[in-house]
Here is the input.
Amino acid sequence: MCSCLFRLLQLFSTCVAFSLVADMGIRRGAIGNWSMSFWCVCFVVTLIISIIDVCELWSRFRYFWCNFSITYACYATLICLSASIIYSVTYVQFLPYGPYRDRAIAATAFSCIASVFYALDVALMRNCYDCDDVTCYVHTMPGLLKVLETFMAGVIFTFLSYTSLYLDRPALEWCVAMYSICFVPAALAIVLNLGEWQRRLPGPFPLFQLVLSLLSVLLYVSALVLWALYQFNEEFGGQLQRSSDMGCISGLTYNMCFWDRKLTVAILTAANLLVYMADMVYWARQVSVGTRGQSNAPDPFHSQEMSLQSSVSP
Here is the structure.
């Protein structure tokens, strides 16, 4: 019952946010199109999930469906929240007072409301589905970190949609390649855990995750350094000051200027690096505890030999 109520509120909020921005026409700008597309995706996927729940089609794959629903709700929370922040900071505040600004503010408010309902869905969906016998991957620390890693990588790819930011510059193309390389293992780890296929790996899963996290940290460090040097250091052809980008001082153009995009990518890269470092520390502790537990475990052959010696001795 609680799940159906949350779904109705999510559908209503995302539909209203999408409709308000769509009604602005060409005045909505590129950021408005970006936000509108995400609200539309959240609405469609939520509608599909609601139909499957009502028809109880998930009963045949209960474990996967429970984890998938919670994982999607977690992503939808981050998507609506980020759309609200980016749309308001980069676009709404620059609109002149009038009906278009009022529509944009209302759309931002409904997007925030949708993110709240999705967050409540993440917290309460397990009880609503009566999945107490199922371990929800997103409710664990590594699951939440993987969701954050893939989500922030997706936002980075969105800001890199303008290829002129990095094309024909090998160092920046390397950064884009690193984002892609790190995204694939994180997404693969989520898929493996959703289907409970991680047990089929040839080696121990914690060690596998530790190696991937360490590699991702190193790649993100190189991407952060190179991106900052070649985008903001004038010796490497970058622009240190925002005023040096003519697109940023020409007033409202219904689009983010290149310098703002570069800065946003740098901030998201640093934030995702911190998430990967937390992931690496978590798996390092798991591997350390597992190794220590194996070393402290009694040797059955040695124990059997000692018992035989004690029984033979007078």
Summary: Residues 243 and 249 are 7 Å apart (CA to CA). Confidence is low (pLDDT under 50) at residues 297-314.
